[in-house]
Amino acid sequence: MLENLGRLKGYLLAVLVCAIALPIAWELDAPSSCFLLATMVTSLYGGRGPGYLTVVVSSILFDLLFLLPRFQLLHSHESYLRLAIFIAAMILATELIAAKRRSEESLRRTQTKLSQAMQVAALSEFSASVIHEISQPLSAMVANGQTCVRWLSTNPPNIENAPAAERVVRDGRDARGVIQGLRALFRRSPPQKVLVDLGPIVNEIVSLIRGRAESEKIAVEVQLPRDLPGIIGDRLQLQQVLMNLSLNAMDSMRTVTDRPKTLVISMREQDGMVLTEVRDQGIGISDFEKVFDAFFTTKEDGMGMGLSICKSIIEAHEGRLWGSPGPVAGTVFSFAIPRAIEGEQ
């Protein structure tokens, strides 16, 4: 119904524009210019059909009122040639404007599809980040829960090893914190920053990965100065960064057999920043430019979200995360965050 009404308005526009162009063309004795302008206006605002109606009406008026002798259908060859050129010019103008309208409509449809594709990509990226970040505390909860079951199934039940149950509770809280952090990220809320000592976070990470490190024969070395200054940051997010970098380092050494496998986590103060380095003796990375892009991964089972999220977290702490080749082999991932100013919290 609305489409038909729009077409009717276009044809009414053609008649109206011709009615306006006629007295002006008569007064100025310039029918070619006036009717060509009328055709262009109708084609531009009414479309191709109304444009051709203007061509027909203008041609009839041109033939009857402006070709000599007037008010007759038969004219000289020169007059017919003039009429033919006039009609060709109006048809050309109508087709050019119609082509421009089709191009604009095609561009608009392409932009709409691109916008929809970007929304889907953003939703996919957010979903992937949720899956990636939640999987770590859930895996820890399963491992600690299985330990609790094993201890409770002994006769008599070993109820003295309560720390495993406490770790289940802690990991559950971490999972809830990850969800809250991702919700805050989705709402573009700033991280919950407090004064953070990175030393205890490193020790927690080492305790969590020690079992896997022993089974894969990876030596874990921690280098922490006693006077390491604190930073202002979100403790849980920084823990996620260190955990991601440590697990990536261990993954890179999984297939190494010709040299010792060592994971080194070191921290030091440098130029007003707290510099953290995670070094491995793994297979290395060839492209440090793409490695922080979302969905870029060198692992067969990887999602390509870990380093992208880590970079976002460090940048939210006014810091910088980068990667470089190791001194002998492997990779060094480093991040630097401004040290806390005395009295700051």
TrEMBL record:
Keywords: ATP-binding, Kinase, Membrane, Nucleotide-binding, Phosphoprotein, Transferase, Transmembrane, Transmembrane helix, Two-component regulatory system. SUPFAM superfamilies: ATPase domain of HSP90 chaperone/DNA topoisomerase II/histidine kinase (SSF55874), Homodimeric domain of signal transducing histidine kinase (SSF47384). InterPro entries: HATPase_C_sf (IPR036890), HATPase_dom (IPR003594), His_kinase_dom (IPR005467), HisK_dim/P_dom (IPR003661), HisK_dim/P_sf (IPR036097), Histidine_kinase_KdpD (IPR052023), KdpD_sf (IPR038318), KdpD_TM (IPR025201). Residues 129-341 form the Histidine kinase domain. It is a multi-pass membrane protein. GO terms for molecular function: ATP binding; phosphorelay sensor kinase activity. It comes from the Bacteria. It catalyses: ATP + protein L-histidine = ADP + protein N-phospho-L-histidine. GO terms for cellular component: plasma membrane. Its main location: membrane. SMART domains: HATPase_c (SM00387), HisKA (SM00388). The chain crosses the membrane at residues 51-68, 80-99. It is found in: Membrane. Its EC number is 2.7.13.3. It is an enzyme of class 2 (transferase). PANTHER family: SENSOR PROTEIN KDPD. This is histidine kinase.
